[in-house]
Design brief:
By secondary structure, this protein is an alpha/beta fold. It binds iron/sulfur cluster. The site of iron/sulfur cluster has 11 residues, from loops.
């Protein structure tokens, strides 16, 4: 059964919400009635990777709580500037796989298109926080070259819209690109990785659905939600519209210290995803990107949490615990710490 109201969520345009995002640390602290003592660190961190957070996401944060799990994902901290030998600018070596503008081709059969370099939110843990997006803003000619590359490789059965956030692109651009890709016979499906509907649910418009779903290609959308508090009525409505359009919905989560590294938090997220008809797909351990070391959860703790989730949830609500390793041809699963003691049901 599908629950929820069918009221449209686009009463305020997503472009307007995007353009009014908070980028000034002082404004964010004031808005959430936080201690001004946080400002110096926030400014220092923002100088390396700017603050950006849209109002609909801020609305879901608790005031006066510096440990709010949604705030922690976006608030710059001075400790991001600490050097750590294991945390580097390009932890996944993508600048070697990004050999053509707009394309990352690192897995067999699948290809990532950098559809937009922009994001609606700057997540402090982002493994692409130092990615040279400026080199991936494609001209019309470069888009044609990217499409020619897909046309020329019969092994590419899946095209993945990535970014930045691909839904930061206009509906017109998405509709054109999707039509072009659907016209390539060996492409079987389209996947969209996005956090935009989570932070600005108003992004899910009829035009967006038409742009993505107007061709023969089945569409899989992988949302990026890290905490059950991210789900409010507007996001629930947006998700419902995506489901009603026939889009398969999955979610991937990054395991983040101080945000979601407890069993109850992860179970609550999986249950909430299940309530909305979204299947938990991946639980990623943190990529070792420079500036994100304060989010680290050690592997033993991560594997223990995954094993406990298996004991408490139906198997289809347990995400796969994975790590991305530079140069590997797929994600690398981490074993359950107590493998053999729990069974899928
Ligand atoms: S939305 Fe995704 S790509 Fe953009 S900053 Fe957040 S994690 Fe990175």
């Amino acid at each position: 059964m599908i629950h929820g109201s069918l009221a449209p969520v686009e009463s305020v345009s997503w472009q307007s919400l995007l353009s009014r995002s908070i980028t000034d640390p002082e404004q964010l602290l004031r808005r959430l009635e936080l201690d001004p003592a946080l400002l110096a660190g926030a400014r220092a961190g923002a100088a390396d990777f700017p603050l950006r957070v849209p109002e609909p996401f801020v609305e879901r944060m608790h005031k006066s709580d510096p440990n709010d799990p949604l705030l922690r994902q976006v608030l710059p901290l001075g400790e991001e500037l600490l050097e750590h030998p294991d945390y580097v600018l390009d932890p996944l070596g993508e600048q070697h796989t990004n050999t053509r503008a707009g394309i990352i081709h690192k897995y067999h059969g699948r290809l990532l298109l950098i559809v937009s370099g922009g994001c609606a939110v700057n997540c402090r843990y982002c493994f692409r926080r130092h990615f040279p997006y400026g080199d991936n803003n494609l001209s019309t000619e470069q888009w044609q070259q990217a499409l020619d590359y897909i046309r020329g490789d019969q092994s590419i059965g899946e095209v993945i819209y990535s970014g930045g956030d691909p839904l930061a692109a206009s509906d017109k651009r998405l509709a054109w690109l999707t039509r072009e890709i659907a016209a390539i016979p060996h492409v079987r499906r389209l996947r969209v990785h996005t956090r935009l509907p989570v932070v600005i649910p108003q992004r899910v418009t009829s035009e967006l659905i038409d742009a993505l779903c107007g061709t023969r290609l089945p569409v899989v959308m992988v949302l990026h939600s890290n905490h059950a508090n991210e789900f409010d009525a507007a996001l629930g409505n947006a998700v419902l519209r995506l489901r009603q359009a026939g889009i398969t919905l999955l979610n991937q989560t990054v395991l983040l210290r101080g945000v979601n590294d407890s069993l109850e938090t992860l179970i609550s997220l999986s249950e909430t995803l299940g309530d909305h008809g979204i299947l938990p797909y991946y639980l990623h351990v943190l990529d070792h990107v420079k500036g994100a070391q304060h989010f680290h959860v050690d592997d033993g703790a991560a594997m223990g949490l995954a094993a406990e989730m298996l004991a408490r949830l139906p198997g289809f609500l347990v995400p796969r615990l994975v790590r991305e390793v530079a140069g590997e041809t797929s994600k690398t699963p981490l074993p359950f710490q107590t493998a053999g003691t729990h069974r899928l049901a």
